[in-house]
């Protein structure tokens, strides 16, 4: 059989509990359920706790705890293009000369596919950092690109312009300089203010049209299509509430709109699956669906109803002895699937993500996998899928053999990831070492640097056994000090000798302004 086409759909801030195939009860996501019912659904899939680092791990096949491998530029810089204070060329020079440049021979996800003769396309949210350029996108291996260049602009769903293969494309009817960004919240009374002026075309509608065009244009040759959606990242804004939730008396307006953003993403998944069927190429197309990080309920936070950093009684979480749970914070959706924590932190709810893979006739239908996998396994999986050997520097392992039923496939002994609080390590057997770097004694940590040592005494070291304690309620570090010592050594090596490397802030780069 020839190498299959590949479609990768990456949701933004989608907690796995927001999908009905992972337990959502207030609505159904029929198309994502359809994908899971015809393929494999992973129970132990992990990503980074934040968006940009997570996407970098996806593209490089390397986890986000290393030192000096890559840096991120800062977002909102393209506002200077919008207001006319900088040209596109000047912005590109500014961004391209910032931070760590890729080295000769560096491998990215799309370059793996291109080496196997695939045409590659990226449609949607920017793939790298918080601002990117056409040169950077081409350098990462994409033959075709349509979408955003700036993470800050991605918070709005009515872009006055997007970029297509390096060219600015104006969108008639979308006239808001802030890209139509809504209210970040909280939302008193669950209300969302709507003003249609300057908001004409929803960005997902733009992406859907280009996705269909790409599929039809390349039906006769191998293709790799990557769709990083903005959905359901906030601010929540979706005036055309889906009928499935419109009359649900249990939901407030902002909750209905957030659910509708998830359902809008589900509709795109259905559009892709239907188009593959229509073109007669579904049998030879592998479709992957994942999220960049865990749940983000701040998108629909409401005073007295849904909280994030404190419980409903106002007790703030210290992220050591207390944390977000759906019950404590009034999350009606239970978007973190009854785990603790949310986006940005290294509890399970912030890093354990949905992962679904379908390949008709090759992957058994309705398969549920307990294999330990990470988003940084994607590059190695695509390499094996296209008949190649993964690059030696990758941290990932291909999970394709396990999907195809082979029992001899190598597995991770552990996976690691970073967060705003510090790194964590999860073993194949389900033990988790969690490090918290921001206790009161360690608040000299700065967004732009740090004076913390590799093993600061202020750090908290916590040990959990996830198979019996998925909510991370029983710290067993004192029961198993030898295991804490062993796993700390492994994690420190993964962090290249300093846990500070395992914070997103360590990878930000200031602009070389000129």
Provide a brief overview of the structure.
This protein is an alpha/beta fold. It has helices at residues 30-37, 51-60, 79-82, 88-96, 109-115, 134-139, 203-217, 243-246, 253-279, 326-329, 348-351, 378-385, 400-403, 481-494, and strands spanning 5-11, 40-42, 45-46, 119-124, 144-147, 161-164, 167-170, 223-228, 285-291, 355-358, 367-369, 373-374, 414-417, 424-427, 431-436, 460-465. Helix 1 (30-37) packs across helix 9 and helix 7 runs parallel beside helix 9 (253-279).
| Assembly state | single chain
Strand order of the largest sheet: 7-6-5-4-8-1-9-10-2-11
Q: How much beta, percentage-wise? A: 5-15%
- Unreliably modeled segments: 439-455
Amount of helix: 10-25%
**What's the CATH topology name?**
Alkaline Phosphatase, subunit A
List keywords for this structure.
four-stranded antiparallel β-sheet, Alkaline Phosphatase, subunit A, alpha/beta, single chain, about 525 residues, 16 strands
What does this structure look like?
Helix 1 packs across helix 9 and helix 7 runs parallel beside helix 9. This protein starts with a strand and ends in a 20-residue tail after the last helix. Strands 7-6-5-4-8-1-9-10-2-11 form a ten-stranded mixed beta sheet. It is globular, with a radius of gyration of 22 Å. Helix 6 links the parallel strand 4 and strand 5. The chain is 24% helix and 14% strand. About 3% of the residues have low confidence. The protein is α/β, with parallel strands linked by helices.
């Amino acid at each position: 059989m020839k190498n299959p086409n590949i479609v990768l759909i990456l949701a933004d801030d989608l907690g796995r509990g927001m999908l009905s195939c992972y337990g959502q009860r207030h609505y159904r996501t029929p198309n994502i359920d359809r994908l899971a019912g015809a393929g494999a659904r992973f129970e132990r899939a992990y990503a980074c706790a934040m968006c940009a680092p997570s996407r970098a791990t996806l593209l490089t096949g390397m986890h986000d705890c290393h030192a000096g491998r890559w840096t991120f530029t800062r977002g909102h810089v393209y506002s200077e293009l919008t207001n006319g204070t900088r040209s596109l060329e000047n912005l590109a020079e500014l961004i391209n000369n910032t931070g760590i440049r890729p080295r000769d021979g560096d491998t990215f996800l799309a370059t793996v596919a291109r080496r196997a003769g695939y045409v590659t396309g990226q449609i949607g949210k920017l793939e790298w950092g918080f601002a990117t350029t056409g040169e950077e996108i081409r350098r990462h291996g994409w033959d075709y690109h349509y979408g955003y260049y700036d993470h800050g602009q991605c918070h709005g769903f009515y872009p006055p312009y997007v970029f297509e293969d390096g060219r600015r494309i104006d969108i008639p009817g979308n006239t808001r300089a802030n890209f139509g960004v809504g209210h970040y919240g909280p939302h008193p009374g669950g209300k969302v203010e709507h003003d249609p002026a300057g908001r004409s075309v929803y960005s997902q509608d733009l992406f859907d049209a280009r996705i269909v065009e790409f599929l039809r244009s390349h039906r006769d040759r191998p293709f790799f299509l990557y769709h990083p959606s903005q959905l359901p990242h906030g601010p929540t804004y979706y005036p055309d509430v889906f009928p499935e939730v419109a009359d649900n008396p249990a939901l407030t307006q902002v909750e209905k709109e957030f659910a509708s953003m998830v359902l809008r993403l589900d509709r795109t998944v259905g559009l892709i699956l239907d188009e593959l069927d229509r073109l007669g190429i579904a049998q030879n197309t592998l479709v992957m669906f994942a999220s960049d990080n865990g749940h983000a309920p701040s998108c629909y936070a409401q005073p007295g109803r849904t909280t994030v950093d404190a419980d409903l009684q106002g007790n703030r979480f210290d992220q050591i002895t207390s944390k977000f749970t759906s019950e404590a914070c009034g999350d009606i959706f239970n978007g973190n699937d009854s785990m603790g924590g949310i986006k940005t932190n290294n509890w399970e709810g912030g890093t354990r993500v949905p992962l679904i893979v379908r390949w008709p006739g090759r992957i058994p239908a309705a398969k549920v996998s307990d294999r330990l996998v990470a988003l940084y396994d994607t590059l190695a999986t695509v390499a094996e899928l296209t008949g190649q050997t993964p690059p030696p520097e990758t941290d990932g392992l291909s999970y394709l053999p396990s999907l195809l039923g082979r029992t001899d496939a190598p597995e991770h002994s552990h996976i690691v990831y970073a967060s705003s609080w510090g790194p964590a390590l999860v073993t194949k057997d389900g033990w988790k070492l969690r490090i918290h770097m921001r206790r009161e004694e360690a608040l000299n940590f700065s967004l732009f640097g740090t004076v913390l040592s590799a093993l600061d005494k202020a750090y908290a070291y916590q040990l959990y056994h996830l198979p019996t304690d998925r909510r991370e309620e029983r710290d067993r570090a004192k029961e198993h000090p030898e295991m804490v010592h062993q796993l700390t050594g492994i994690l420190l090596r993964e962090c290249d000798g300093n846990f500070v490397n395992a914070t997103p802030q360590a990878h930000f780069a200031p602009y070389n302004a000129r």
